[in-house]
């Protein structure tokens, strides 16, 4: 508040007052704000895609489909943000939980599973997938609680490798490389979702994201959220203030994983197909990049980061050829951008990080952090005053 | 003097019995006995490296003692771990039993479904017991106790039992506000769990609101009323010390461990802090165990003083008695002729 | 004197005994040589990870791709300027060729490593901890796709300059190639140990790793030291890449990721920041892999590697040779 006061001071009083009031209103009715926000965004985006230059890239229906896929990554980023951003636990194998969610649904709702044939409806399976992923989150979290920072990173990385490898190699259960196809699509009160129409998926996705976002915000502002932050800042001090670091960290893993489980169930039902190669390291890394780029700890920032990065990666870079072709720039139109899309993606990652090391939208907390020096322990620096000598015995 | 917070029956808040802590060959704390009566201020002094902070860490549950034990409010909470090797046996046994049963089921009935069920039960038991071993819920601890396994309480258990502490080199949550720091201190006093948070239950919301008000009270006690919204690391040094104290108070402790609360403070701040500590005992009835270098502080407010040197207790008693003890003078100033 | 002798002999005896045990477990010389070569490659890369991590606490995810890049540079030098196609029988000529391939590869890679450090990591030295991790991932993408766009997606053959002569040894056939490769790798590792342990720059590196600010106050040029660390790390990756190309006969653009991952695992397994640990970890990982293959579970070798890693870390949270950090208060 103090930081913005100077800048806002020049503006007319009325505007500032109005903005402040809007801000307070939004903060006190956060759930409603989120719902309204998503309704506006979700309506505006497809309409915006009817306008050039967006309309020149691809049809509106393809855009909507792309947004739905981006939504999966928004979900994943929201979940990973709980683990990395809130609790400060570096998880490099997050795609494992995504895979677990996807396979959970595939096992429960596909005729091509080798060992069973079920058709459990989609909506309850969302919760089941989340729960199963959460359980695996606990199982991963439990043995790794003692590990510090980067050791945790490598163990999670290993877990992220083991899970798809198990799905790949246990082919009697999972069909191995071929994956599980023919996964049933969702239906809602008799309305059947189809591959041809991306809109129902889009609406469902937005609804899921809005709900998850509300929940994540609630967690952040709760006793648990504070405990996460405390563990992130100083684990020993947290424990010495009564925070049970064991359950706190486990809950971060479990709740973070459950979101990935949701995303997995959704993906399986949308693609009607799961295979181990959908859940490689690249996915884990991409999600982490989304979280860091969006601004760790900032819920909306992370969502926007995921959206931007996904759109850049799988829409914009693929559309650069026709784009520069229509613009008819002499030099650029001859380059085959599709060939270089991952190169450009890598460059984009590096550049964005160099330009905004704290992420595009640092959480307000972190922004304040950057205005001060980068010292973690102010106390260490000042140290005990040498003037107060140990013994002033009379 | 009020004895409101003292336990009925046994009056002593904390009793350390022959506590020893060795790091490899280095004995940091050697057979220290210490007692803290209700609503008293007890000081632990000694030259640098005498083992004071190590002793603190042992009674706060951060370090396991090499031998000896600590009773807190009548319960033996800290002691050398016993039979820890047996613990895996405790949590593996149920699933092994289930596994054996599944084999027996298979041999007896040759029914694949029944066997699979028993195998699943075995795996499930293993997972549950494994998680229990890590989370250590109460029933699991009871199970361990019957198996003769003992592990010291964790720091958070000590806080729950009524022990608060501050650190020698301030350990605030630097990127959280003063208010949030104090709210973390109230963690054990709050009940909202993850489900409450997700559902935003009225209970949780009320509790959250009350906790904020209460946290402001604690900030008021230490004189930080107006600084609730500031990030801990942006506070001046003296305020950081006070905030850490407020955070420790927020757990409503019976016993407060203060590790050099006036280190680095100027004389005026030191006097304020001393007054504050005295007031905590008087008004809130909290017992205080104090590590302090500033002798003016120690002599002024302590009911009893323990002197450590090279990990050993060399003197104890009232401030006057300790001040007159030749061994204490020797420890601080060295032998007259060296 | 006696303790000295014991101190020197002890590791030698341990190494000899474990090598014999490994030889027996792997059922003979054939697999044993596989293990040694693979272990040497992992160890060389793991050293790079561990050095970089030791000095700036960054998991350099691009390191595996530097290794891959090095393999391609070596392949290019062999095929284009040298125009090699087949085996060279003259030992002297062969040695010259190897030097001409390996040295420039190591230098080019070293320069590339310092270049990457300068532009992708150094600007972020005071940024939030995860920022350089993300640029590392970005650099990894860039390196992979530079190679991809130049050499294409399919494996590229590396000319086999080594004659395929083998000799009998303890009931198995050993090629000179593998012996030679292991020798080079061990030579480089010993050289590195000497450099870090005995030279002024090595001391600067160790002091920077311990406490960057204190080292700076003592007059150590931090930027230079970090740059040199990256140079050495990348050069070692280049050497590893050369060995990989020559030994396996082909290179592919996505080779770096998995090898890098395993090498990183090796570094952590050994205790990250500890160069001896990295080498040890490399051989442990190689053993697990070759042993899994030996037992007929080659598909599960990765799972086995990571399971072992997790188990080791659960019981020794700082790796096999890592310093066990106590709780500080």
Give the C-level CATH assignment of the largest domain in chain B: Alpha Beta
Q: What is the strand tally of chain B?
A: 10
Portion in strands of chain B: 15-25%
Given as residue ranges, the uncertain stretches of chain A (5+ residues, pLDDT < 50) are 1-12, 366-394
Give the overall pLDDT of chain B as a whole number: 87
Query: What's the tally of helices of chain A?
Result: 19
Please state the CA-atom Rg of chain A, rounded to the nearest Å: 24 Å
Beta strand % of chain A: under 5%
Overall number of structural domains of chain B: 3
Structural class of the helices, strands and pairings of chain B? alpha/beta
Tell me about this structure.
The complex is a heterotrimer of chains A (394), B (338) and C (329). With 394 residues, chain A is an all-alpha fold. Chain A is built from 19 helices and four strands. The model of chain B is unreliable at 1-9 (pLDDT under 50). By secondary structure, chain B is an alpha/beta fold. In chain B, helix 2 packs antiparallel against helix 3 (112-135), helix 6 (178-185) packs across helix 8 and helix 8 crosses helix 9. In chain B, the strands form two sheets. Chain B has a six-stranded mixed beta sheet, with helices on both faces. In chain B, strands 2-1-4-5 form a four-stranded antiparallel beta sheet, covered by helices on one side. By secondary structure, chain C is mostly helical. In chain C, 73% of the residues lie in helices and 4% in strands. Chain C has a two-stranded antiparallel ribbon. Chain C has a two-stranded antiparallel sheet with strand order 2-3. In chain C, helix 10 (255-270) crosses helix 11 and helix 11 crosses helix 12 (301-315). In chain C, 49% of the residues are buried. Chains A and B meet through helix 7, helix 10, helix 11, helix 12 and helix 13 of A and helix 3, helix 5, helix 6, helix 7 and helix 8 of B.
Strand-helix topology:
The complex is a heterotrimer of chains A (394), B (338) and C (329).
Chain A: H1 2-8, H2 13-28, H3 30-48, H4 54-57, H5 60-86, H6 95-108, H7 122-144, H8 149-169, H9 171-174, E1 180-181, E2 187-188, E3 191-192, H10 199-220, H11 223-233, H12 235-239, H13 245-271, E4 273-274, H14 281-294, H15 299-316, H16 320-327, H17 341-355, H18 364-371, H19 378-382
Antiparallel strand pairs in A: 1-4, 2-3
Chain B: E1 14-23, E2 26-36, E3 41-45, H1 52-59, E4 67-72, E5 75-79, H2 87-109, H3 112-135, H4 138-146, H5 155-161, E6 163-165, H6 178-185, H7 194-199, H8 202-221, H9 237-249, E7 255-259, H10 267-284, E8 287-291, H11 295-301, E9 304-309, E10 312-317, H12 319-324, H13 326-333
Chain C: H1 2-25, H2 29-56, H3 63-79, H4 91-121, H5 130-151, E1 156-157, E2 166-169, E3 172-175, H6 176-198, H7 200-210, H8 212-217, H9 222-248, E4 250-251, H10 255-270, H11 275-294, H12 301-315
Helix pairs in contact in C: 2-6, 2-9, 2-10, 2-11, 3-4, 3-5, 3-9, 3-10, 4-9, 6-7, 6-9, 7-9, 10-11, 10-12, 11-12
């Amino acid at each position: 508040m103090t930081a913005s006061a100077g800048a806002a001071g020049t503006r007319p009083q009325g505007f500032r007052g109005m903005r402040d009031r809007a801000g307070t209103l939004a903060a006190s009715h956060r759930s409603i704000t989120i719902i309204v926000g998503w309704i506006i965004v979700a309506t505006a985006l497809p309409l915006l895609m009817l306008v050039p230059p967006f309309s020149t890239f691809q049809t509106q229906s393809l855009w909507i489909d792309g947004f739905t896929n981006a939504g999966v990554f928004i979900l994943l980023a929201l979940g990973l943000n709980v683990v990395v951003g809130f609790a400060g636990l570096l998880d490099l194998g997050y795609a494992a939980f995504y895979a677990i969610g996807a396979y959970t649904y595939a096992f429960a709702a596909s005729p091509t599973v080798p060992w069973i044939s079920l058709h459990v409806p989609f909506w309850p399976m969302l919760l089941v997938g989340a729960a199963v992923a959460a359980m695996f989150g606990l199982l991963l979290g439990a043995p790794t609680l003692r590990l510090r920072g980067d050791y945790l990173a490598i163990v999670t990385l290993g877990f992220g490798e083991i899970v798809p490898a198990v799905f790949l190699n246990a082919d009697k259960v999972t069909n191995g490389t071929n994956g599980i196809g023919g996964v049933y699509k969702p239906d809602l009160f008799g309305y059947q979702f189809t591959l041809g129409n991306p809109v129902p998926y889009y609406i469902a996705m937005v609804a899921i994201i809005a709900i998850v976002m509300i929940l994540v915000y609630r967690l952040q502002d709760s006793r648990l959220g504070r405990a996460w932050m405390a563990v992130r800042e100083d684990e020993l001090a947290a424990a010495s203030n009564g925070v049970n670091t064991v359950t706190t960290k486990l809950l971060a893993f479990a709740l973070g994983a459950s979101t990935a489980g949701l995303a997995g169930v959704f993906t399986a039902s949308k693609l009607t197909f799961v295979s181990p190669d959908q859940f490689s390291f690249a996915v884990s890394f991409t999600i982490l990049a989304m979280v860091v780029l969006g601004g760790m700890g900032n819920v909306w920032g992370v969502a926007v980061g995921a959206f931007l990065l996904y759109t850049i990666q799988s829409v914009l870079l693929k559309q650069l050829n026709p784009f520069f072709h229509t613009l008819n720039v002499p030099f650029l139109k001859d380059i085959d951008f599709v060939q270089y899309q991952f190169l450009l993606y890598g460059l984009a990652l590096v550049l964005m990080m160099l330009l905004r090391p704290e992420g595009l939208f640092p959480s307000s907390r972190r922004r304040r952090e950057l205005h001060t020096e980068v010292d973690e322990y102010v106390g260490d620096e000042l140290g005990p005053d040498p003037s107060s000598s140990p013994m002033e015995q009379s | 003097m009020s004895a409101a917070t003292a336990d009925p029956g046994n009056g002593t808040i904390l009793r350390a019995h022959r506590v020893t802590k060795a790091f490899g060959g280095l004995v940091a704390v050697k057979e220290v006995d210490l007692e803290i009566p209700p609503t008293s201020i007890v000081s632990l002094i000694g030259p640098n490296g005498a083992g004071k902070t190590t002793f603190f860490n042992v009674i706060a549950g951060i370090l396991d003692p090499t031998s000896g034990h600590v009773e807190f409010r009548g319960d033996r909470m800290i002691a050398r771990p016993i039979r820890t090797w047996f613990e895996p046996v405790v949590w593996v046994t149920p699933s092994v039993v289930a596994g054996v049963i599944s084999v027996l089921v298979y041999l007896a009935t040759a029914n694949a479904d029944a066997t699979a069920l028993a195998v699943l039960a075995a795996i499930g038991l293993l997972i549950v017991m494994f998680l229990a071993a890590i989370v250590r819920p109460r029933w699991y601890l009871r199970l361990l106790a019957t198996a003769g396994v003992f592990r010291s309480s964790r720091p958070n258990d000590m806080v729950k039992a009524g022990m608060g502490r501050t650190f020698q080199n301030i350990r605030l949550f630097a990127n959280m506000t003063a208010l949030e720091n104090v709210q973390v201190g109230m963690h054990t006093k709050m009940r909202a769990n993850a489900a409450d948070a997700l559902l935003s239950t009225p209970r949780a919301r009320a509790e959250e609101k009350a906790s904020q008000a209460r946290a402001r009270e604690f900030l008021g006690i230490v004189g930080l009323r107006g600084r609730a919204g500031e990030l801990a690391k942006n506070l001046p040094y003296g305020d950081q010390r006070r905030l850490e104290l407020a955070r420790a108070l927020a757990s409503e402790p019976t016993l407060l461990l203060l590790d050099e609360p006036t280190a680095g403070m100027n004389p005026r701040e030191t006097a304020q802090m001393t007054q504050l500590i005295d007031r905590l005992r008087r008004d809130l009835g909290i017992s205080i165990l104090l590590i302090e270098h500033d002798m003016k502080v120690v002599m002024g407010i302590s009911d009893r003083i323990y002197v450590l040197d090279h990990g050993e207790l060399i003197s104890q008693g009232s401030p006057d008695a300790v001040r007159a003890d030749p061994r204490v003078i020797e420890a601080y100033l060295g032998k007259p002729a060296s | 004197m006696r303790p000295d002798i014991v101190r020197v002999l002890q590791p030698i005896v341990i190494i000899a005994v474990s090598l014999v045990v490994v030889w027996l477990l792997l059922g003979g010389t054939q697999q044993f040589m596989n293990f040694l070569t693979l272990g040497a490659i992992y160890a060389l890369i793991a050293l790079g990870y561990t050095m970089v991590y030791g000095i700036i606490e960054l998991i350099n995810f691009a390191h595996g791709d530097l290794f891959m890049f090095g393999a391609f540079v070596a392949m290019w030098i062999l095929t284009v300027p040298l125009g090699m196609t087949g085996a060279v029988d003259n030992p002297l000529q062969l040695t010259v060729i190897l030097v001409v391939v390996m040295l420039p590869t190591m230098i080019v890679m070293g320069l590339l490593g310092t270049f990457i450090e300068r532009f992708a990591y150094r600007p972020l030295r005071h940024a939030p901890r995860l920022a350089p991790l993300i640029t590392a991932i970005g650099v990894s993408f860039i390196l992979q796709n530079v190679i991809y766009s130049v050499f294409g997606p399919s494996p590229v053959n590396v000319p086999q300059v080594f004659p395929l002569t083998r000799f009998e040894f303890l009931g198995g056939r050993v090629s000179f190639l593998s012996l030679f490769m292991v020798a080079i790798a061990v030579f480089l590792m010993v050289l590195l140990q000497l450099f870090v342990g005995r030279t002024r720059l090595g001391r600067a590196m160790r002091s920077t790793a311990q406490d960057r600010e204190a080292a700076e106050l003592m007059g150590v040029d931090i930027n230079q030291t970090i740059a040199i660390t990256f140079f050495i790390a990348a050069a070692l990756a280049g050497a590893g890449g050369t060995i990989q190309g020559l030994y396996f006969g082909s290179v592919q653009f996505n080779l770096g990721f998995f090898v890098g991952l395993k090498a990183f695992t090796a570094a952590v397994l050994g205790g990250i920041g500890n160069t001896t640990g990295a080498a040890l970890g490399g051989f442990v990982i190689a053993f697990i892999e070759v042993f899994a293959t030996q037992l007929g579970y080659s598909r599960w070798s990765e799972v086995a590697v990571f399971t072992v890693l997790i188990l080791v870390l659960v019981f020794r949270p700082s790796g096999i040779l890592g310093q066990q950090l106590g709780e500080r208060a």
